[in-house]
Write a structure and sequence with these properties.
The chain folds into 2 domains: 187 residues, Up-down Bundle (Growth Hormone, Chain: A); 185 residues, Growth Hormone, Chain: A (Up-down Bundle). Helices cover 79% and strands 0% of the residues. It contains 13 helices and no strands. α8 runs antiparallel to α9.
Length: 398
């Protein structure tokens, strides 16, 4: 726990909460359209057709670089005791490298640019999330988590926007992404001077007896997020294939529309639950409920015999997972043991975002051909339920 402060940290005004939520969403806009649509299409253009074998190593190497860079840059921003210059530098560098992806003339060149781009992107993202911990007191972390649900929603909508037929020429799409990211990120950074709260920056000196309890809470929070992220990442990657196994010929835009609608609907729901958790001082309870509903949605999907039931199960799962991940992101800031190492520790938590992308393909290859999607969904349900149990174990401690 932090050393006692003379005065409690002042709450942030609504305008800054809104600007920070938009800046966080800018981070999602920076990578979601590229990794889900534009990068696969660029590789297909170079290879003369869809080439999973060429795309997979590019994504894998990028995920490795993102994992390492987030921890390293978070640590550097801790040592510098400032965040905003890092964010601006990362914004400029990542936008420049984003444009370079479109100029790369081979898959090898794309892989190299994407790896460097991941470092630049995390030069922006790592200090941005650490800055949230510097600015928002515990009494606002629930509503902050709700606002962070805007990130995946805007990321998905940006992917649809930049690929909308006739809106921009294909060669201008990466430029549009860079413009959108700048518009979303810069207002919070430029207007956010003096927003840090000194009481949130006091170095932690926990008594020895408190360390095991705090470390146990952190480990449970990390594991709980990883388990839900594995399930969420699996559905993100294989939703269309699964729906087509139930209804051959199911259109691509149908799956994309469902995915986007779920993320958009999760924003107000996350805000309501986050606000409720702040007012009642129950930060972990919504996480337990959301993880439990994730498991229920997966079980409905596993048992679905029709397209209608399949979509209903996915909506339940998708809403619950989006709420869980948004609220968990802000409540993580509550349990981190050392404000002076906040950026580094968030980098370790960021592994829960990158590791599932390395694990999921192997789980799918092992289970689906032999046992079908039902077995995969039952496994995901078990993971989500385990997450709920882990969090329930300290529901009254934080």
């Amino acid at each position: 726990m932090n050393a006692p402060a003379a005065d409690p940290p002042e709450r942030q005004p609504v305008w800054f909460l809104v600007l920070f939520a938009l800046a966080s969403a800018g981070g999602a806009v920076a990578y979601v359209p590229l990794l889900t649509v534009l990068l696969p299409q660029r590789i297909a253009d170079l290879q003369g057709g869809e080439d999973v074998a060429a795309l997979a190593p590019v994504l894998f190497l990028g995920a490795v670089m993102a994992s390492l860079a987030n921890i390293a840059i978070g640590t550097l921003s801790d040592r510098s005791r400032t965040r905003r210059p890092w964010i601006i530098a990362g914004l400029i560098a990542s936008n420049a490298l984003l444009l370079a992806v479109g100029q790369a003339g081979s898959v090898t060149a794309i892989a190299a640019v994407v790896m460097i781009w991941q470092v630049a992107l995390n030069l922006m993202l790592a200090p941005l999330m650490a800055w949230a911990g510097d600015c928002f007191p515990d009494e606002q972390k629930g509503v902050l988590g709700g606002a962070l649900a805007l990130s995946p929603a805007l990321g998905a909508l940006a992917g649809s926007l930049v690929t909308y037929a006739g809106l921009v020429a294909p060669e201008a799409r990466l430029g549009l992404v860079a413009l959108l990211v700048s518009v979303l990120v810069l207002p919070a950074v430029l207007l956010g001077a003096g927003r840090t709260r000194p009481a949130l920056m006091i170095p932690a000196t926990p008594p020895p007896v408190a360390r095991p309890l705090r470390e146990g809470v952190v480990a449970r929070m990390w594991t709980a997020r990883l388990l839900v992220q594995v399930a969420e990442g699996g559905m993100f990657a294989f939703l269309l294939y699964w729906l087509r196994s139930l209804a051959p010929g199911y259109p691509e835009n149908g799956a994309a529309n469902i995915f986007s609608a779920v993320l958009v609907c999760a924003v107000p729901l996350s805000l309501l639950l986050g606000r409720w958790s702040d007012r009642h001082g129950r930060p972990v309870l919504p996480l337990v409920g959301a993880a439990t509903l994730c498991a229920c949605g997966m079980l409905v999907m596993a048992a679905a015999g029709s397209l209608a039931w399949a979509i209903a199960g996915y909506v339940l799962f998708g809403l619950s997972a989006a709420v869980f991940l948004a609220l968990h992101a802000s409540q993580t800031l509550r349990v981190l043991p050392s404000p002076q190492h906040r950026g580094r520790d968030l980098g370790v938590f960021n592994l829960t975002n990158t590791v599932p992308g390395m694990v999921m393909p192997w789980l799918t290859v092992l289970l689906v051909p032999r046992f079908g999607y039902e077995a995969l969904f039952v496994l995901f349900a078990a993971l989500a339920l385990t997450s709920a149990v882990l969090l329930a174990g300290f529901i009254r401690r934080v």
